[in-house]
Design a protein that fits this description.
It is built from 15 helices and five strands. The chain has 327 residues and is of the alpha/beta class. The protein has two domains: 161 residues, P-loop containing nucleotide triphosphate hydrolases (Rossmann fold); 119 residues, Zinc Finger, Delta Prime, domain 3. Strands 2-3-4-1-5 form a five-stranded parallel beta sheet, sandwiched between helices. Helix 7 crosses helix 8, helix 10 packs across helix 12 and helix 12 packs antiparallel against helix 14. The mean pLDDT is 93. The protein binds zinc ion (ZN).
Length: 327
């Protein structure tokens, strides 16, 4: 949880380190970016650095009494609020507000971390706004959210915003190799399909994921041999698997991307374990056909992200994938 051990977020860490070196601590920070890339860990790391009893420069030592409490989640001045059900509720923010009337218990800095701040209901948002309007001393409020547009503009304007980017695939693959013993091919494929979210990649059961991905790629690779009924059936199956739909489309996208990429550089394939098949398919397809397929998958991803009916969007995608095969 020290700054040094946070993976792939050099820019935010540099910013926070400089901030601490200058001795300037804003009273509110907003960490934005997708889930699983280190926003919450960084927020706790900042709390640890601010309270460390024997810091190394501006970094936490990781060993003192205060650091140990932050690591075990028992530091009384590091307050974390998470959504209860779908929302962060007014009662939760009021409870924080009551604590803020008193000085930090351990005499250092108090850090209030509101995770998934986009889940604050309007009453909770207004209560946070009140706190931000009259910030208590030696207190930092850290909000984490996917994007600033998910929050009230009046809340955003009172925070110093720091954006977190997806972690480079190579780094996610390194961690998957080290912690889960995955071979490089599998680790890379999983890192790409979870789009640089280490948290998501680590939450997946690699064996089940491999079986699922293989099935998907085999199905999508044999589209041109399927009957119309088979094609629509596959679209329906995909649409029914709601939790994995976004991931499935990402994997399907890597398939067509690989077939296209193979025409230029087979070194850069993502699905290297399917290399022989990808090379074979790539030889028989024109760049134009393949671009149409990439476009069909992209259109489905865009439509679904805008709340289109998934089954309809997938049926259209599958038909467009088939049509792209015809001269
Ligand atoms: Zn320490």
């Amino acid at each position: 949880m020290r700054f040094e051990s946070i993976i792939g977020q050099e820019r935010p860490i540099r910013f926070l380190t400089k901030m601490l070196q200058k001795g300037i601590v804003p009273h509110a920070l907003l960490f934005t970016g997708v889930d699983g890339i280190g926003k919450q860990t960084t927020a706790r790391a900042l709390g640890m650095a601010l309270n460390c009893l024997s810091p190394v420069g501006v970094s936490a030592c990781g060993a003192c009494r205060s650091c140990q409490k932050v690591i075990s989640g028992t530091h009384p001045d590091i307050i974390t609020v998470r959504p209860e059900g779908a929302f962060v509720k007014i009662e939760q923010v009021r409870a924080v507000s009551r604590q803020l009337r008193f000085a930090p218990l351990e005499g250092g800095w108090r850090v209030v971390i509101i995770n998934d701040a986009q889940c604050m209901n309007p009453e909770a948002s207004n209560a946070i706004l009140k706190i931000l309007e009259e910030p208590p001393k030696r207190t930092v409020i850290i909000l984490t959210a996917s994007q600033p547009t998910d929050l009230l503009p009046t809340v955003v304007s009172r925070c110093q915003q720091i954006s977190f980017r997806p972690i480079p695939f190579e780094k996610v693959a390194d961690v998957l190799g080290e912690r889960q013993g995955l071979d490089r091919q599998t680790a890379t494929a999983l890192a790409v399909s979870t789009k640089g979210s280490l948290g998501r990649a680590l939450s997946v059961d690699p064996e089940k994921w491999l079986v699922w991905r293989k099935h998907l790629l085999e199905q999508i690779g044999s589209v041109s041999t399927k009957s119309m009924q088979g094609i629509l059936g596959f679209a329906e199956t995909l649409a029914r698997d709601k939790d994995r739909l976004i991931d499935a489309l990402d994997i399907i996208m890597t398939w067509f991307r690989d077939i296209l990429m193979c025409k230029f550089s087979s070194e850069r394939l993502i699905n290297k374990d399917f290399m022989a098949k990808i090379q074979r398919v790539s030889q028989g397809r024109s760049v134009n056909e393949l671009l149409k397929k990439v476009d069909a998958v992209y259109a489905a991803q865009t439509a679904i992200s805008k709340n289109a009916n998934p089954r309809l969007a997938l049926e259209v995608m599958m038909m467009r994938l088939c049509l792209a095969d015809q001269p």
